[in-house]
Amino acid sequence: MSSPRKSKGRPHGRLRATTYLVVGGAAAVAAYLTPEAPEPARPVVAALAESPRAVEAPLAPVWRSRVDTLGRGETLVAVLERAGVSRSEAARALQQTDVLDPRQLRAGMTVTTSGMSTDSMPAEIVVQPEVDRVVRLKYLAGAWKAIEERLAWRTDTVAARGVIASSLYETMHQAIGRNLPAPKRSELVWKLADLFEYRIDMSRDLQKGDSVGLLIERRVAPDGSPRDAKILAAALTVGGKPVEAIRFRGKGTLGDFYDQEGKSLRAAFLRAPLEFRRISSVFGMRRHPILGILKAHRGTDYAASSGTPVRAIGEGTVIKAGWSGGYGNVLEIRHRNGFVSRYGHLRGFAKGVRPGKSVGIGQTVAFVGTTGLSTAPHLHFEVLVGGQQRDPRVALRDKSGWPIERREKGAFTALRQRLLAQIDARSTGAPHLASAND
Question: Start and end of every Csd3-like second N-terminal domain (predicted)?
Answer without folding.
Answer: 191-283
